[in-house]
Design brief:
There is one protein chain. This protein is an alpha+beta fold. About 35% of the residues lie in helices and about 20% in strands. A 6-stranded mixed β-sheet has the order 15-14-18-19-21-20, covered by helices on one side. Helix 2 links the parallel strand 1 (about 25) and strand 2.
Amino acid sequence: MIAVELISLVQDVISKHCEMQNVELKAGEKGCPKLYDTISAFANQSNGGIIILGVDQDDDYRICGVYDPQDIQVKITEQANQMSPVVRPLFTVAEYDGKIVVAAEIAECDLFSKPCFYKGAGIVRGSYIRVGDADLHMTEYEIYSYEAFRKKQNDELRSIERAGIETLDNAAIEVYKINIRSQKQNLAGLPDNQIYELQGVLNSGTATLTGLLLFGIYPQAFLPQLCITAVVIPGIKMGETGTDGERFIDNKKIEGRIPQMLDEALAFVQRNIKNTTIIKDDGGRYDKVEYPLKAIRELILNALVHRDYSIFTETSPVRIMIFRDRIEIESPGGLYGRLTIDSLGKVGGDTRNPYIAGAMEVLMKTENRFSGIPTVRLEMQKHGLPAPKFENLRGAFKVTLYNNTENPAPDVAEVGWDDPTQRIVDFCAIARTRKELSAQFGFASSSYFIKRYVTPLVDKNILRLTNPESPKSKNQKYVAEKK
């Protein structure tokens, strides 16, 4: 940074009246402040950050200037030398409004050296992370994540107490055994147990976490929260309720092995998103799903295969939340290793669970070639929807898909006489109650089903109420108008 750039940055901060993710303000008018937490936070974040001294944030962002530009650089350097690893600030001095301001640029430290911490406080109390304009203590899990990557800790290979080979499903492991012998020639002639040990399924005869999640008869008997929780919310934020006061339209805890959870989660999403049939001008028709299922499958698969399986997160399930305007898929553990939000889908990343990923290639012919994120982006683009939103949160990774609508009720003229509209009309050849209708079409919430599918048909005079004077009567029924 040169002096002109520092002055421009100071002007920008003053005009905005706020610090930023990569900019910290300190007065420095009466002495050098303690900067250990900010130095640690900037050294631990992507692209580092800049500490500006000579601006008093507590006095309406007044340019106060530093007490001594030479001495303050010496004092900051002394503090930076007390970090592990040692930090080397890059200083810039400039005059602004007749006062001297100083910038200390803190570069991001090498990933294999993180977390950067103040040695006087120790790694647990001296490691910080930047969140907005605040420097917060790193959690024990965040510190562990760096250590696990540096030491190549394979949490997926930890043995699960009480889980012997008898806890694995014979049929599932037999299919795996046949596939791996046909796909990996070097393993073809080895005895079964040696293959299981080499592939991370067993560890000295005890099932590993990998073995249980891929082949266990019931993995959640040992690890209850390594599952998926899936919910459908009536509105656009958690806590909103439906017309009958229900918090969830659908709500399911999905358990089993990873392939089973993948299939069941995809089925849950499929039955809870819109599927309309579009009639073209030439008389042809095609189905349009609210979200591209191929993209959703990739995201659920990624969440199961690449989530963190350490003891810090084994009580946290993968979460799927379907709102009126979006779907959120959240997996425990942030991005792993050198991968960043900006590099997602552009470069090959580090694999947190290589044994699970490798076994899924054998079992389901999935690709472990980092093609999942590009596929998701392309599918959303082809579907005419906004690009997916990726967030690396503290201890979690979240993907959001938006449907680009306010989820209006379907237009019967557009949908045509097709599934499920025609089937609703056919079913109402005789008068049906709300409960009968929702049960027939597999909806847990009758109010949502009626509002979403049945009321538009009433508005179009395709169905009629048997008791129009009291439309909300609990005895209300719906019947098809005679043609």
